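Human: I hope this is not a bother. Would you mind checking the protein record under this note? Thank you for your patience.
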Amino acid sequence: MLFDWYFDGDTTSQVFDGFRMSEPSARVFDALAARVGASLAGRNTYDDSGWAAGGGPHPTAHLVVLTHRPAPVNEGQTVVTTGIEDAVAAAREAAGDKDVALMGGGVTTAALAAGLVDEVVLHQVPVLLGGGRPFFQALPGHVCLRLIEAVPAPGVTHLRYEVAR
């Protein structure tokens, strides 16, 4: 339901094998994915996604994992235990001149709170959930966003925001 738009179109992703999206979704998704040089995930996202066995969310990007407990380290992965600032620094180094993608609500919230996020990309799916766990955790104050781009597509609207400083 939330990720059906990855597979409900006739345009093959140029970055992710097996993804067949609508043309607008493929255009937005592939442009964003091509910019990613490293991903930064929290430990829950790491464990829940099965990346402890290797790999990561992006087929070519290095994975940095922020955790406070021991984690397996595989090729193409780095584990950081000393906080969000060090984890972002490690991810930036691994990314080179490309972007760092944040994965998971805890890491994203911590990076937003620390002022380490330049853009927020949301893929809004028209589904109201009756319950569950919120993605973003409590922030100290609020974060203002400026809309850069909104692309409607079948089953999803792609929103890209600049974090206002």
Notes: The longest strand covers residues 145-153. The domain at 36-117 is CATH 3.40.430.10 (Dihydrofolate Reductase, subunit A).
